[in-house]
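Intended use. Records like the one below are meant for learning the mapping from a protein sequence to its folded structure. Do not use them to infer anything beyond what is encoded.
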Amino acid sequence: MRNRWVTHSNAAAFQAVADPTRRAVLDLLRRGSLPAGAIARAFPVSRPAISRHLRVLRRARLVEERRSGRHRIYRLNADPLKGVDRWLEAYREFWNSKLGDLKNFLEGEASKADAGRQGRKRRADSRARRKVK
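Structure written out for the chain above:
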């Protein structure tokens, strides 16, 4: 059975963001458009390597390229990430539910521990009063 959220464009976006360097390029472009050279200078890898990363991001439509003279200017296009976000929503709900269950369990355990401490304190106070008499 095929997940209705995993389409060809979503698969390309997933593949593109699977690489930490490409995610870092997207983070860099979140601040604004940049020429390819400026993007390449921001990373400790070769220009051809950054060029390949930009090609993957372009094919996934996560970046848009325009030419300005001899320069290629890249800008972020976050729209394809909406499909990824929709797919992740089910997992967000899953983890929120699990974390809610964990919170309830821990609060219950804390209440039991508090009740135990209060009971021990009352018994100790009672023993101390008996010794004083």
